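Materials and Methods. Structural model of FKBP-type peptidyl-prolyl cis-trans isomerase. The 274-residue sequence of FKBP-type peptidyl-prolyl cis-trans isomerase from Pseudotamlana agarivorans was retrieved and submitted for structure prediction as follows.
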Amino acid sequence: MKQFLFICALVLFSACEKDETPYDYSTENEVEIQTYLSENNLVSKKSGSGLHYILHEQGKGAVPLDTDRVMVAYKGYYTDGTVFEENKEGISISLNHLIKGWQEGLSFMREGAKATLIIPAHLAYGDNNQGGIPAGSVLIFDIELIYVNYTTQNDLEIQEYLDENNLTAVKAYSGLYYSIDKQGSGAQPADSDKVTVTYKGYYSDDKTFDESSKAVPFYLDNVIKGFAESLTYLNEGGSGTFYIPAHLAYGNQGYGNIPGGAVLIFDIELISVN
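The predicted structure was written out as tokens:
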């Protein structure tokens, strides 16, 4: 229960409205942080906001920004070493749902990085008691930034699906994977061409989320990027299977019944172009 409460606090935190002016713990927190650093022979960098951070290992991937989604493993503890939260497996969460200290700290990291964030209260929960965390607390987090958005996670999911089903596919520069069953011999669609297709859409667990009962006409510029790109690998009369990562589909937010971050798989037959 403690873990669940803290995650909820981390995600849903908003400052409680008070009649009085919130107490500023900045001075006390800075003294506490400097003492902690000295006693543990640590050297940190301090940002203009008052955040202290120690970058142990910089990653090579993307830097999270704004509303990006991140997967992180972490341990949270106080300056006396008491652990109040830990998640070794990692959680996936939108950056703008995190406390300010996390948002800023992650902006200094790339995908794959490991760091320690030492967060004063004004970048965490201020003078509020929150989920068992006392008002004015300095929070320390050891963080591993596993993924930014779903790009890496989706790629692994697609590769695992292919391996488990003894399938092969070509990976395009965009991150789309495709396997051509029949190339076709007619026209090849491009740009905003009108096409007619039959298709079946399903997830990597093979659950179908959409399927055409008859041929469907549409313009390429009216569908998700991954679907439009998929059809450019076919000629009229061709068919294939296409594995579309979230950044070429519905991204972090999802759409309708399709969840955010979902890999979409489509079996497509291109019946006609224009």
